[in-house]
Design a protein that fits this description.
binds ligand LLP; alpha/beta; nine-stranded mixed sheet; 424 residues; 17 strands; TIM Barrel
């Protein structure tokens, strides 16, 4: 819930004393702001919880693939979970070595696998037999051995939004245990693939430890069975999915130590490397989106706050009807008013919140949309020909632009104004 006055509480926390008004004045709005310290603190507490385990944290780059964020991960000993060659190249440029990357995803092409092998990517999380055969082919062509894990689908309900659930049998992800078993049995047919890992990822924004426990228990049982059958398993990747607080007083994410305890307990018989792929948990709460009110519009039935951020900047509310706490940056007293908070894009779905209580607002007021550090800018587009937004990092009272607002020229670069027709 927003604080009773509707004033900033957590944005001040996230902005750590850096003045939101001056940031907005300097860089314009909409403006995505991150706290480097908040991210470092998350990394530190995860590493502390993992103490004593042979663990590698691989940040899911899809949650935020901005160079400065990936670089912060690299500097703090975090690797990457990648799902495309684009993410691979971004991570390499940000200083994450291939050996600290795992490559996930159902649609890896052979060209992508080949480039990943060339860059020494540590492990491929394989999701179909066709992909496994492709990996064998490209590894043989390069005269290399690819390390692989089978992504198992444990058929567990993650109790999260349907669009971000991945661990049910009906989902496109992973393979069932019986298919996975045959891959291990046929290992000799694929001499350039060392299949010695298991991988599981059941979904995202998971607020209940139960589904993690269920999925990991199934993986642990499968691991026991494989070991009994004589297969060596050196790595278990437990995926990502740990949820965060989008709505104060309503979302109660589990403590990271409790989450790691579930992992420790489920995998207590396993002696090998544990890989974790958190995305959201590392960065979401470290980000706020600053946006200005363009105008207030009294409709026939509802009062609208039209802001300069839109669904192209932050898609989550439109796509998943996701809640993000929104607060006014300036302290204001007086009665609260229920606004529908909407962007300028020409779709009714361009709505951030319905009947959200804020102190009375007027054109020019600055608002902060909270918990936007994950799946915000990484899902942004230039829909309605709105340039990609600017991003700023703050660190110990200083701030730095980490991504320029896209220029019109950059937005239309690549478009051909005089097509050169050739006969087909
Ligand atoms: N590993 C794999 C294989 C994944 O597919 C994902 C996320 C992660 C790790 C990281 O999950 P996390 O720790 O961030 O929950 N756009 C959606 C979220 C999609 C998540 C896709 N996969 C959203 O805005 O809620």
């Amino acid at each position: 819930m927003d604080s009773p006055s509707g004033s900033v509480d957590r944005p001040e926390g996230v902005l750590e004393g850096v003045n939101a008004d001056s940031l907005a004045a300097r860089h314009g709005t909409p403006l995505q702001v991150y706290s480097a310290n908040a991210i470092r603190n998350r990394i530190r507490s995860l590493h502390a919880a993992l103490q004593g385990l042979d663990a590698l944290v691989c940040f899911a780059a899809k949650a935020n693939s901005c160079h400065a964020i990936l670089n912060l991960m690299a500097e703090n000993g975090v690797g990457a979970d990648i799902v495309s060659v684009g993410e691979l190249e971004r991570c390499l440029r940000a200083g994450i070595s291939g050996s600290r990357m795992v490559f996930s995803g159902v649609g890896k092409t052979e060209a992508e696998m080949s480039r990943a092998l060339e860059c020494g990517v540590g492990r491929f999380n394989v999701e179909s037999v066709d992909e496994l055969d492709g990996l064998q082919r490209v590894a043989a062509q390069r005269g290399l051995i690819a390390c692989a894990a089978v992504r198992v689908n444990p058929d567990v309900d993650a109790l999260t939004h349907a669009k971000i659930s991945t661990g049910k049998a009906e989902n496109k992800f992973g393979v069932g245990m019986s298919e996975a078993r045959t891959w291990f049995e046929q290992a000799r047919q694929r001499p350039n693939v060392r299949l010695d890992g298991l991988h599981v990822h059941i979904g995202s924004q998971i607020l209940d430890l139960g589904p993690f426990r269920q999925a990991l228990d199934r993986v642990a049982e499968f691991h026991r069975e494989l070991v009994a059958a004589g297969h060596a398993i050196t790595s278990i990747d437990v995926g990502g999915g740990l949820g965060v607080c989008y709505r104060e007083g309503h979302d109660h994410p589990p403590d990271v130590a409790a989450y790691v305890e579930v992992v420790r307990h489920a995998l207590r018989e396993f002696r090998g490397r544990i890989v974790l792929e958190p995305g959201r948990w590392l960065v979401a709460e470290a980000g706020v989106l600053l946006t200005r009110v363009i105008r207030v519009k009294q409709g026939e039935q509802r009062r609208f706050l039209i802001i300069d951020a839109a669904m192209n900047d932050l898609l989550r509310p439109s796509l998943y009807e996701a809640w993000h706490d929104i607060v006014a940056v300036r302290q204001a007293s007086g009665p609260m008013i229920a606004y529908d908070i909407v962007g300028p894009v020409c779709e009714t779905g361009d709505t951030f919140a319905l009947a959200r209580e804020l102190p009375e607002c007027q054109a020019g007021d600055l608002l902060a949309i909270k918990t936007t550090g994950a799946y915000g800018t990484s899902m942004a587009s230039s829909y309605n020909s709105r340039p990609l937004l600017a991003e700023v990092m703050i660190d110990d009272g200083r701030s730095a632009l980490i991504r320029q607002r896209q220029s019109l020229d950059a937005m239309i670069a690549g478009e051909v104004t005089s097509p050169q027709w050739i006969s087909a």
